Amino acid sequence: MRPLLWVVLLVAVVGSLAFAGARSGVMERHFIYFPERGLVASPSDFGLAFEDVAFSASDGARLHGWFVPGESDVTWLWFHGNAGNISHRLDNLKIIHDELGVNVFIFDYRGYGLSQGKPTEQGTYQDGEAALAYLRSRRDVNQEKVIYFGRSLGAAVAVEMATRHRPYALVLESPFTSIREMARLTYPFLPVWPFLRTKYDSLAKIGSVEAPVLVLHGDRDDIVPLETGRKLFLAAHEPKEFFVIQGAGHNDTYLVGGDGYLQALRRFVEDPARKSGG
């Protein structure tokens, strides 16, 4: 058989398998979610006082999180990325808590850490709603000053929550525009993105967010390209700010960013409505 024909057949077979995987949801589960169950540490291991929190989503799924009190009246609601669990964010959490002085509430989506169930797009939105309901139940939380902070996949959940419940501000770090665009960028030779059922279409939603928006993105991000974050930023309403973290990839933004990164966050927390452009 001629080599070209082998190539055509191979592409056809791989394309058919990818199409079937996309339609069945198998490909989506392996492409999007990488949860880990075991917690490797707790806030106390980083010298932080905290409350262990158990709460329920509207469908009954039991969820788990940590509330770390701070010195200010601002609460940082943390929507983490698609891998690991909340215990893998503790070094980052300590920096945010200590440098910004905010209360931090971080929780695991269903299927991650100690939270029950399996992750899905709608499930993560239910989990976000449950986290907000939990914060509303706390008398020590200023309901007018809750900042939604989303990293990577968590940015998409944070955007969805911001379209439903206006936050004090919305901080998006290393965000993507949609799952379909990520699939297209990651697998350019497998045109399965039109068939994916999971959307996380932040680009279609960001224009409905009425809160101040800060987008931070590493200029060496080889997972979610910088221009993806910029595209999302351009679709957002003022007031907004775009901060490029020089030399940062996808997972080391808070380490590489240094003082400039922290100053950008601090300025935004202190006065999120200021107009600075980007």
Q: What's the total number of strands?
A: 10
Q: Give me the Rg, rounded.
A: 19 Å
CATH class: Alpha Beta
Indicate the CATH topology: Rossmann fold
Relative strand content: 15-25%
* Poorly predicted ranges: 1-18
Number of helices: 10
CATH architecture: 3-Layer(aba) Sandwich
Largest sheet: number of strands, sense, barrel closure: 8 strands, mixed
- Summarize the helix and strand pattern as letters: HHEEEEEHEHEHEHHEHEHH
Q: What would the keywords be for this entry?
A:
single chain; 10 strands; 278 residues; 8-stranded mixed beta sheet
Please sum up the structure shown.
This protein is α/β, with parallel strands linked by helices and 278 residues long. The protein has helices spanning 3-24, 26-32, 90-100, 121-136, 153-164, 179-186, 202-205, 226-235, 253-256, 258-270, and strands at 34-35, 51-56, 62-68, 75-79, 83-84, 103-107, 146-151, 169-173, 213-218, 240-245.
Q: What order do the helices and strands come in, and which of them pair?
A:
Blueprint: H1 3-24, H2 26-32, E1 34-35, E2 51-56, E3 62-68, E4 75-79, E5 83-84, H3 90-100, E6 103-107, H4 121-136, E7 146-151, H5 153-164, E8 169-173, H6 179-186, H7 202-205, E9 213-218, H8 226-235, E10 240-245, H9 253-256, H10 258-270
Parallel strand pairs: 1-5, 4-6, 4-7, 7-8, 8-9, 9-10
Antiparallel strand pairs: 2-3, 3-6
Helix pairs in contact: 4-5
Report on the structure:
- The chain has one domain (3-270): Rossmann fold (3-Layer(aba) Sandwich).
- It has helices at 3-24, 26-32, 90-100, 121-136, 153-164, 179-186, 202-205, 226-235, 253-256, 258-270; strands spanning 34-35, 51-56, 62-68, 75-79, 83-84, 103-107, 146-151, 169-173, 213-218, 240-245.
- It is built from 10 helices and 10 strands.
- α4 (121-136) crosses α5 (153-164).
- Helix content is 38%, strand content 18%.
- The longest helix is centred in the N-terminal third of the chain and has 22 residues, at 3-24.
- The chain is an alpha/beta fold and 278 residues long.
- The strands form 2 sheets. An 8-stranded mixed β-sheet has the order 2-3-6-4-7-8-9-10, with helices on both faces. Strands 1-5 form a two-stranded parallel ribbon.
